[in-house]
Amino acid sequence: ALPGAEQKRYQKTTMKTVACALLLASAAALAPTPARTAVSKAAPKPALHYQVAAAATAFAPLAALAGGQSEGTGLSLGIDDPREGTVLWVIGGFFFFTYYNWAKEQPDSDSDFFAEYDERRL
User: Fold this and answer.
1) SS3 for 29?
2) How confident is the model at residue 8 (pLDDT cuts 50, 70, 90)?
3) Which listed residue, 13, 31, 44, 108, has the most CB atoms within 10 A of its CB?
4) Global pTM?
């Protein structure tokens, strides 16, 4: 067994060696690959124009929302019983008409609600 001071120095040296080895291994993993020198023909034109690809990409979230809400039932919003759709429409309609009637009674003002304050209350 090594004396206490030598054992600590040995541990520090070992830790430094391991750290350097890990640093070199990670640097080697990030090294660029050598360039290929093979002569290639001109790149073929893409099958889809970039406008079509962009349109398809923009549509993807909408398609995911439509299909993703089925929760495995294959039906919209996962509703597999007609009563669930009825309850959904009745409750949604209740809240819509409640809000609509409340909003009709609110004063129409062209002023900014958050910009108005009582200057006496500073």
Assistant:
1) helix
2) confident
3) 13
4) 0.34
> What's the pLDDT score for residue 86?
92
H or E stretch covering 7: helix 4-29
**How many other C-beta atoms lie within 10 A of the C-beta of residue 70?**
14
CA-CA distance, 17 to 24, in Å (whole number)? 11
> Which residue, 21, 15, 51, is CA-closest to 7?
15
Euclidean distance between CA atoms 75 and 66, whole angstroms: 10
Residue 85, classified by CB atoms within 10 Å of its CB into exposed (0-12), middle (13-18) or buried (19+), is middle
CB 3 within 8 A of CB 11: no
Q: How far apart are CA 57 and CA 63, in angstroms?
A: 10
Mean pLDDT of all residues in 72-96: 84
What single string gives the DSSP state of each residue in 32-93?
A: PPPPP----PPPPPPSS-HHHHHHHHHHHHHHHHHHHTTTTSSSGGG--SHHHHHHHHHHHH
